[in-house]
Amino acid sequence: MHQEKAIKKISVSRETVEGAGVRLHRAFGYHDIPAFDPFLMLDDFRAENPRDYLAGFPWHPHRGIETVTYMLDGTVEHGDSMGHAGRVDARGVQWMTAGYGIIHQEMPKPVDGKMGGFQIWVNLPQSHKMMDPRYQEIQGEEIPQVILPGGILIRVISGTVGDVTGPVRDIMTKPEYLDVSLQSDAQFTHSIQPGHMVAVYVIEGSGRFNPVQSEELLNRTLVLFDEKGDFVDIQAGRSGVRFLLFSGKPLHEPIAWGGPIVMNTQEELDQAFLDYRNNTFIKKSV
To answer: Alpha helix (H) ranges present in the chain?
Structure first.
């Protein structure tokens, strides 16, 4: 028998400063673990004032995680210790697996005066913390769209909707990442894999995320659903609603988190920073 997921927690993203002085909104992070397991953090860096983001995120290390950058407007130029350089343009996605270690930089740039997007951190299981780094870079036109009756448009970044599967694949935690737009008063019912956590983050308009909920939730509101149940039911408000939906298989593993590095034990974390100081953080190609 199918059961709808109840809402476990509602919160609003909070302002913070990261990188070289980038002003952004953090939906969840270090102080929320392990509620969003396997996800670690969600940052919303939509901004209208270039002074809020042009300083960017200069060279910094990562180990033990995956970072997922999804752009709505503008672009992010990036480079890394593997000699890779490129950019993530509007509507595109970069899914970077840091594995045993990568040093990179990310520099947001406006296009036609606009810049904005989101970055999610996904934890790697202990068995894959030290895997080889890799990138999956997806252009906007490569992300399939699903149009459903009743005014529903879904961009499928990762996971499957109906018979459409997103281009980001072979990720350890089997994540689902959808950009969902509902027209006025449209209703969206979506199945969730048993045992997977699921949350949504509102980015436009307003909506109700449970039929018994009377209050419509607005931009920059985060909804975490209960573990029980196998589907969510969402109703758009009069102005419609757009939200990011993400779900994944929890790891249920210990977390040792220090800045841009996430391992399972304090000893592993200490070793990572020792490697960084000793210039042995990056594996040298032969």
So the answer is: 266-277
Backbone angles phi, psi at 36, to 5 degrees: -105, 10
Cis (ω within 30 of 0) for the bond into 38?
yes
- Using CB atoms within 10 Å of the CB of residue 246, give its burial: 0 to 12 exposed, 13 to 18 middle, 19+ buried: buried
Contact 19, 47 (CB under 8 A): no
How many angstroms separate the CA atoms of 127 and 30, rounded? Answer: 22
C-beta contacts of 266-275 below 8 A and 24+ residues apart? 268/64, 268/129, 272/61, 272/63, 272/64, 272/101, 275/101
- Greatest CA separation for the chain: 61
Tokens representing residue 244 in the block: 């990011």
Residue 116 CB contacts under 8 Å (≥ 6 apart), including other chains: 45, 46, 47, 71, 72, 73, 74
- Phi then psi for residue 110, to 5 deg, are -80, 155
Query: DSSP letters of 202-271?
Result: EEEEEEESSTT--SPB-TTEEEEEPSS-SEEEEEEEEEEEEEEEEEE-------EEETTEEESSHHHHHH
pTM: 0.96
The tens digit of pLDDT for each residue in 187-242 reads: 999 999 999 999 999 999 999 998 777 789 999 999 999 999 999 999 999 999 99
Peptide bond into 34 cis (omega under 30): yes
SS3 190: strand
Strand partners, 77: 87, 107
pLDDT tens per residue across span 84-129: 888 999 999 999 999 999 999 999 999 999 999 999 999 999 999 9
Q: Is 55 left (phi over 0), alpha (psi -120 to 50) or beta?
A: alpha
